[in-house]
Amino acid sequence: MLVKRSESAEPAVPHFDEKTSVRDLDDADPALRRHAAQALRGVTAVVDDLCRRLAVEPERDVRAALLSNLIGQKSAEVADLLASIFDKGDAALRNEVMEALWSMPEESIDKMPVLLASPDRKQRLLAVNVLSEIPHPHAVELLEQVLLSEPDVNICLGAVDGLTHTDDFRSAGRLAQFAARFPEVDQVQFVVRSLLRSLGEPR
Amino acid sequence: MMSAERAGAAVFHDFTPDEYTRFYEFFYQKTGISFNEKKAYFVKRRLQERMSVREATSFRDYFAMLRFDLNGVELQQLVNLLTVNETYFLREDYQFDALVQGILPEIAKERTPGRVIRIWSMPCSTGEEPYSIAIHILENWRRSDEFAIEICGSDIDSVVLAKAREGRYSARSVQRVSPALRRKYFRPAGEDFQICDELRESIDFSAINLIDRIAMARMRDVDVVFCRNLLIYFDDVSRREAVELIYESMAPGGFICLGHSESMSRMSSLFRPRKFAGTIVYQKPQRP
């Protein structure tokens, strides 16, 4: 039976208090935490609170609200903060951080050389993963640089994978140099040989 | 600088890139709708139309009028001009099959007879979608009399909502409706078709801007959302926010149906895909 919805009252404009909302980010009730993350949209002064909460937040829908807030406020500071919590949680958090950095290419790209130079392997891996999908013209150049200087062969292979995602794959020369850096690693030789063959390059 | 010249009654304006960007950003902030470069000509033509109507001789004057128009009438006029509203009855009706064959039976399993099942069509444009949903349920779900089914239609465009409430449609709009259903749910009105009063009076139409948190708070505990071919007009940031507000409006375990070219998996991980009657819909988990 069809019934017409009864007139709903005009929703009241919620009272917003920044301090209360920041406190609510850590409330035991996930609904309150989620509302706090939404209420703090556009409040630049609280991006570190949002990132701090994101690193420990177990509820997916609260994390989504925190991420939307941070992505909406995209800045170099937000990109820095997101990179700093990359390895603080589980795989879901790592994926979300990457997704957020992809969505702010201009703000993220300058952070990438810093991450690639980090002594922390996880930070370098994050950079390669971000560069593999980020829509930015400098990404290819930075990934090629990884092939020439990164000591960890698995991170290099991640960069090769990223380069194959680019529309204009033109890194044949770099691939050969990469293969020469790891002559004893069969997987590297196989991957490079296969890619060069598919590009029609002699090896 | 913008050039303006009079040619008869009309005023022609050539927008500078800076003016266009200012307008674009303002409109985006207010509505979440973004236009790509390919749409620039379309947008500029509509802006010119409004400038002529308001007799604004410069973009600066018109933009000031738009920004400081406290009751939002001018912005609403622009929204009405810049949004696409073409639709027809029983469009993409495979999703209505999914509704009656899978979604509603699943919701009904957990609900006592007599309770409300709330369905929301957004954007509803001139009303074809919510009326189609109503007809499809009445015709194809045998348990429809056991529940109080509320169907709401919302749109950002006030002109199309007035047409939806009126319920009068061209022959082209009802061409996919069988003659038997036309006889049952419509009556002739000149060359047009008038939706029957029973349907017209049972659907609640309201103006809602999807990215307006306060307005969206009016919609709560929605069991099924039809949000087809809307989110494609949003950029990534607005789309994320819109999806979250829709999520908020839905009952736990509720379903959302998107357009055939849209995929929730590319927008958000909040929902899980389900397949009914050969089509993918997305479900809000009972618990996050």
Give a brief outline of the structure.
Chain A: It comes from Rhodoblastus sphagnicola. The complex is a heterodimer of chains A (203) and B (288). Chain A is 66% helix and 0% strand.
Quote the CATH topology of the largest domain in chain A: Leucine-rich Repeat Variant
Q: What portion of residues of chain B is helical?
A: 25-40%
Strand content of chain A: under 5%
Helix-and-strand structural type of chain A: mainly alpha
- CATH architectural category of the largest domain in chain B: 3-Layer(aba) Sandwich
Question: What distance separates the N and C termini of chain A?
Answer: 73 Å
Give an overview of the whole structure.
Chain A has 13 helices and no strands. In chain A, helix 9 runs parallel beside helix 11 and helix 10 runs antiparallel to helix 11. The termini of chain A are far apart. Chain A folds into two domains: 93 residues, Leucine-rich Repeat Variant; 84 residues. With 203 residues, chain A is an all-alpha fold. By secondary structure, chain B is α/β, with parallel strands linked by helices. In chain B, 40% of the residues lie in helices and 22% in strands. Chain B is built from eleven helices and twelve strands. In chain B, the strands form three sheets. Chain B has a seven-stranded mixed β-sheet with strand order 8-4-3-9-10-12-11. Chain B has a three-stranded antiparallel β-sheet with strand order 5-7-6. In chain B, strands 1-2 form a two-stranded antiparallel sheet. In chain B, a hairpin with a 2-residue loop joins strand 11 and strand 12. In chain B, helix 2 runs antiparallel to helix 4 and helix 5 crosses helix 6. Chain B starts with a strand and ends in a 5-residue tail after the last strand.
